[in-house]
């Protein structure tokens, strides 16, 4: 039997506020256990939650970015369950009327465009953390994360493979960072996924019994966990068994999922409106204010890069995969508007490679866009060749790499004459004088009669050999296009 995998994702994005969703405590990562848990987070008697306006504003921003409905009023509910790191015995979340309802996320898998529908995106508080490794025979409780603001983004079960799920998650990860509502740091738990996975006979309209895989904090683990869970369910069904609805954990060391508990349904949590929080009214004027300051979204920028700069869809998609890359490219091309393709090639190529090797993001690129544009200008005006430009780039990077601040703080300060200084001091200026180039070519023709004869007999490789000899004689400084043109004219 041919099987189809059905996948829906629940993504928890930690919102980029300075304080928690219902208290004024800090959400800074890395503090000593319980150092950032105040009376509200500890659920001491008599405390009351106060909603963080910044968390609501970020939820509205996301809803507008995905074309969703912003509900007003929106209701906060108590989700009741017991766990040691949940001090109140319930989690403040949303159920019937979330802030964000509906919406879509579009992305590409290989050459195919895919659209995933969203059910909702609701605000909720995070729980604390249980520490098992550091205490012999005991479990420690760290409540620093308790009350951290989360936006839980719930998709419809529209994905049919782990590749689609990863592409969707990456697009969502890029979007929340693009609109500046989440830093997306997966290592610190700022962006994590729960995957609901089921299988069914291909062509069937009925959904199978799903299992939820919790807390996947890398795209690689997301892909591997879905693939393993789908295989596990297919094997059970083909052996005559039935799938039990469960919450499972993925073990990357063994590449397997393990049962954690039976999967609860909504009624098991006994949701009811939180009596300490009034219904949230979101006036249309506030939504309009948020819409007015929303940045150009990735899809809009992709279309603009293709339309205004003539870039390919691949280049436009690569450059808009991350807000930092897009901002850097736009700044470079504003300094060299005559050749956006050359700018794109160097941003996606040399600059990206050096940043990857240094373990840095584009935000911390040590070269200003003006300096890179100056280098590209020297390629265009024939001062240096593309090969020489890579050496100049290497030396520029070496001189600037110790700078800790990123390019945005360097834009107004950087010395754009650095490019010319390196070219001059290293003697890298290209020989473009036609008389000098012609003299070199005459010498090569005179000393390589065999290659000349072979070329005239129709062997194109012989021409390339002659070009190589000219470039060698010029120590790589001759203009390759000029060498080709003059050499061909002399060999006619």
Largest sheet: 10 strands, mixed
Average predicted local confidence, pLDDT: 90
- Secondary structure class reads alpha+beta
Number of strands: 15
How does the overall form come out from the CA principal axes?
elongated
Cα-atom Rg, whole angstroms? 30 Å
Question: What is the straight-line distance between the termini?
Answer: 68 Å
Number of domains: 3
Unreliable parts: none
State the helical fraction: 40-55%
Number of helices: 17
Our estimate of the beta-strand percent is 15-25%
Topology:
Blueprint: E1 3-14, H1 39-42, H2 53-65, E2 69-70, E3 77-80, E4 90-93, E5 100-101, E6 104-109, E7 112-125, E8 129-131, E9 140-142, E10 149-155, H3 162-178, E11 191-201, E12 211-216, H4 219-238, E13 246-251, E14 256-262, E15 272-273, H5 284-292, H6 298-309, H7 313-319, H8 323-335, H9 340-358, H10 369-380, H11 386-400, H12 407-410, H13 418-425, H14 434-447, H15 449-456, H16 460-473, H17 480-491
Parallel strand pairs: 12-13
Antiparallel strand pairs: 1-10, 1-11, 2-5, 3-4, 3-15, 5-7, 6-7, 7-10, 8-9, 11-12, 13-14
Helix pairs in contact: 3-4, 6-7, 8-9, 8-10, 10-11, 11-13, 14-16, 14-17, 15-16, 16-17
């Amino acid at each position: 039997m041919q099987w189809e995998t059905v996948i829906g994702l629940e993504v928890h994005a930690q919102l980029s506020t300075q304080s928690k969703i219902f208290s004024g405590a800090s959400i800074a990562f890395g503090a000593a256990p319980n150092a950032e848990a105040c009376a509200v987070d500890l659920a001491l008697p008599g405390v009351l939650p106060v909603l963080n306006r910044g968390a609501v504003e970020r939820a509205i921003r996301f809803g507008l970015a995905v074309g969703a409905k912003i509900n007003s009023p929106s209701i906060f509910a108590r989700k009741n369950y017991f766990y040691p790191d949940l001090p109140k015995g319930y989690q403040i979340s949303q159920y019937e009327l979330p802030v964000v309802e509906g919406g879509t996320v579009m992305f590409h898998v290989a050459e195919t465009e895919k659209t995933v529908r969203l059910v909702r995106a609701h605000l909720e508080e995070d729980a604390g953390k249980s520490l098992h490794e550091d205490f012999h025979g005991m479990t420690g409780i760290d409540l620093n994360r308790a009350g951290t603001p989360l936006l839980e983004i719930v998709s419809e079960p529209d994905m049919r493979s782990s590749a689609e799920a990863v592409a969707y998650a990456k697009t969502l990860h890029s979007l929340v960072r693009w609109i500046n509502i989440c830093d997306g740091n997966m290592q610190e738990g700022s962006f994590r996924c729960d995957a609901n996975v089921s299988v069914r006979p291909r062509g069937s309209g009925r959904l199978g019994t799903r299992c939820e895989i919790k807390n996947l904090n890398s795209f690689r683990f997301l892909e591997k966990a879905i693939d393993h869970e789908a295989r596990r369910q297919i094997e059970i069904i083909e052996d005559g068994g039935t799938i039990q609805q469960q919450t499972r954990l993925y073990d990357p060391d063994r590449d397997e999922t393990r049962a954690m508990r039976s999967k609860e349904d909504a009624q098991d949590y006994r949701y009811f409106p939180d009596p300490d929080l009034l219904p949230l009214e979101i006036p249309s004027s506030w939504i309009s204010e948020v819409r007015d300051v929303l940045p150009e979204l990735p899809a809009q920028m992709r279309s603009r890069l293709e339309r205004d700069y003539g870039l390919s869809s691949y280049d436009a998609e690569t450059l808009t995969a991350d807000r930092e890359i897009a901002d850097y490219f736009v700044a470079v091309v504003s300094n060299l508007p005559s050749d956006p393709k050359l700018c794109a090639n160097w941003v996606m190529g040399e600059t990206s490679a050096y940043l990857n090797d240094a373990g840095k993001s584009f935000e911390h690129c040590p070269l200003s866009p003006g300096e890179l544009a100056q280098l590209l200008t020297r390629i265009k005006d024939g001062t240096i060749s593309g090969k020489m430009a890579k050496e100049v780039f290497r030396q520029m990077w070496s001189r600037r790499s110790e700078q800790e601040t990123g390019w945005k703080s360097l834009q107004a300060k950087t010395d754009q004459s650095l490019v010319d200084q390196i070219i001059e001091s290293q003697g890298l200026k290209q020989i473009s004088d036609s008389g000098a180039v012609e003299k070199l070519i005459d010498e090569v023709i005179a000393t390589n009669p065999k290659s000349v004869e072979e070329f005239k007999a129709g062997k194109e490789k012989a021409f390339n050999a002659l070009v190589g000899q000219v470039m060698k004689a010029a120590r790589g400084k001759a203009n390759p296009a000029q060498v080709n043109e003059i050499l061909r004219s002399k060999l006619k």
